[in-house]
Write a structure and sequence with these properties.
Layout: H1 12-31, H2 34-41, H3 45-51, H4 55-80, H5 87-104, H6 112-120, H7 135-151, H8 157-173, H9 178-184, H10 193-211
Length: 216
């Protein structure tokens, strides 16, 4: 009989990151305490500072791998959008390219805290400059705005930007939507991420078309 190999123990650094993700997800950036993160990770504060110089750096380490992964997936999906599509069909494809990677994370248990942290970003207005959205992500968002503008050439960039902003906010809120929970008595966290993606894509596509005053 083959004996099971013992699981490797979590490193101190990993324990800190795991507990930090929970705190940032539960309390947000400003209300999270490094002292409490150390307590729950069972590490000395001086050891935390050995790995991470500040709360800003710790936060960035928690979210950076997901941010980078999403950026790659979105960029690849945007490049795959068929240029022959026109109007609503093309807008729908562009919206799906942006939304689908984030909602797919809901199916990955280890990503739950990141999705919740991202949802908090819609209401936590003031972040230190060091932990705000980095320039590469801003640039990619602008690529999506330009793609939508190309799909709806009669719309203004301002209206496209507003519509895209609403789309991004809805995507972030949807998995953790307390209003939905109040109205339905069910958690917003999707049991079927693909179905939620389809619903959001159709809703946001209709909204973009309406805001930009463009017909079928």
């Amino acid at each position: 009989m083959k004996l099971k190999q013992p699981r490797p123990a979590q490193s101190t650094r990993d324990r800190i990151l795991i507990e930090a993700a929970k705190h940032f997800a539960d309390r947000g950036f400003h209300a999270s305490s490094l002292r409490e993160i150390c307590r729950d990770a069972d590490v000395n504060p001086s050891l935390l500072h050995y790995y991470f110089e500040s709360k800003n750096e710790l936060f960035l380490e928690v979210v950076s791998s997901y941010r980078e992964r999403l950026s790659v997936e979105r960029n690849e999906a945007l490049l795959r959008v068929n240029p022959k599509l026109k109007g609503r069909q093309r807008v729908r494809a562009i919206v799906r390219a942006y939304i689908a990677p984030h909602i797919r994370l809901c199916a990955e248990p280890e990503a739950e805290n990141y999705v919740r942290i991202a949802g908090r970003g819609t209401s936590e207005r003031v972040y230190p400059p060091e932990v705000r959205v980095p320039e590469p992500i801003k640039a990619l968002r602008n690529e999506f705005v330009l793609a939508l503008l190309d799909a709806l050439p009669e719309a203004s960039k301002e209206s496209i930007s507003a519509a895209f902003s609403h789309t991004a906010d809805l995507m972030l809120i949807a998995p953790v939507d307390m209003v939905y929970e109040t109205l339905t008595g069910r958690q917003a966290w999707p049991e079927n991420p693909a179905a939620l993606t389809d619903r959001l894509v159709e809703f946001c596509t209709a909204g973009i078309m309406a805001i930009c005053n463009d017909g079928d």
